[in-house]
Amino acid sequence: MDQKIEYVNDGAEFHEIDPLLLNADSLMDFSIYERQPYQNDRYRFRCLLVDSSSIPKDRLMGLLKSWGKVYIHKDQIEKYHQYLKDNLAYILKHDEIDVGKKTDTLINLSRDVVKESFETNFSFPAVARQSLENAQRLISKAVEFISDIKSLNGIANLIGHDYETHTHSIKVGWLMATFINSNRELFNFDKAHDLKPFLIQAAVAGLLHDIGKIKIPPNILNKNGKLDNLEYIIIQSHTAYSASLLFDMDIAKHTMQAILYHHENEDGSGYPTGLSREQIPLIAKICHIADVFDALTSRRHYKEPKTPFAALKIMTGNNPYLDTLKKFEQEVSENIKAPVTAIVRDDYDIKLRRLREREIIEQEALKRVEARMKLRDQGMSHCFDKSLLKRFIITINKSESFELSGLL
Ligand SMILES: [Fe+2]
User: Strand 70-73's sheet: what is its strand order?
Assistant: First the structure.
């Protein structure tokens, strides 16, 4: 730890933090200070805790509760933000932390996600700062809405379950709102003031679109490697789970449509209901495009991110193996076992033979899943509404698309 035990200054170098946000179960790699008055508008900052690992957990919990305001040095603010990110689920679920503080913490971290995405994928120097601030404001309002409808617990569970899904959801919400703002003529807004709540609801749809994933076992959701057919079916159930979790909440109809139908494909090969073309609600088609674009361009623990260009190439590509791909998809939706090409006949121990046969069936299923994923990356144009996808490409290529000034 390179921080000093004591500082005397005007306080500008220190940030006040709430000790309740600190988790006694999670080691902190930053120092915590208390502030005492000194002379002439100066303060003495005295270190309370240098190494949280040196104190027994019960004693640390007692200390955290007994402290009022505490401070950290500005040089360690990055470490503190990372700590909040790692402990976000804990904070959102903590009964003694009030909803306002939980919402603020979630908003601040969500703003960081937008900032990072803005810097990685979309660098438009002329409008970047203003656009970024507006995008951050939009996400803040969407998070406020979610805390109002008492859905913070669901978000907390999602974060605890899978932080990557949460950051992805923030970006999907922002991309959806950006698209709608640039393509207002698609929605017949009667009055200009109809637009603002609609953009916020679109961001809410993005934030909540995968919330049903909290019902999917973590070993399937975070599996390193390809999912087998049964696991793929279980994953698909997240759309219905999302809708059921939010059923009693005060959610707008179009938000619910986006959540329930964001995996429907234009040609009817999607899920949960196999809707096609005009049967799929417009907002769900937009959510689908934003969802796939962000999934392809994001880094995941099991894959490198694709560039926006490479992602759009996949999304607009006509798949030359569509028939085979559809056969595989149907196999999955009907949970048909992969046909086995090799049968073990030369082993006379029945038990061993069955085990070996099962092994072969599983290997075959995995091979087919792998083939399906490879085929999918050859082109996904059958999944999307062509004219909407074209509009999406134009939208993300125009710097002014990200400008939401005066709307929020
Ligand atoms: Fe999804």
Answer: 6-9, 43-49, 32-37, 70-73, 14-17
pTM: 0.78
CB 111 within 8 A of CB 136: yes
Measure CA of the first residue to CA of the last residue in the chain; give whole Å. Answer: 42
- Residue 69 CA to residue 77 CA, distance in Å, equals 16
Ligand 1 midpoint to CA 76 (Å): 36
Cα(308)–Cα(222) distance, integer angstroms: 24
Structure tokens at 70: 């505490």
Instruction: Assess whether 57 and 111 both reside in one domain.
Output: no
Distance 291 CA to ligand 1 centre (A): 7
Is residue 192 domain-shared with residue 295, that is, in the same domain? yes
Are 360 and 386 found together in one domain? no
Q: Whole domain around residue 155: which residue ranges?
A: 87-318+379-402
The model's pLDDT over 148-207, given as tens digits with 9 standing for 90+, comes to 767 777 777 777 777 788 888 988 998 999 899 889 899 877 766 688 889 999 999 998
Q: What is the DSSP letter of 222?
A: T
Name the nearest CA neighbour of 2 among 80, 76, 83: 76
Q: Rounded to whole angstroms, how far apart are CA atoms 366 and 359?
A: 11
Same-domain pairing of 211 and 360: no
- State how far the Cα of 129 lies from the Cα of 133, in Å rounded to an integer: 6
Residues near ion ligand 1 (CB < 5 Å) are 210
Q: How many domains does the chain have?
A: 3
Look at residues 193, 182, 186, 390 and name the one whose alpha carbon lies nearest to residue 282. Answer: 186
Three-class secondary structure of residue 399 per DSSP:
helix
Mean pLDDT confidence for 333-348: 67
173 alpha carbon to ligand 1 midpoint, in Å? 13
Domain shared by 138 and 256, yes or no: yes
Average pLDDT, the chain: 83
Of 48, 77, 106, which residue sits at a domain end?
Answer: 77
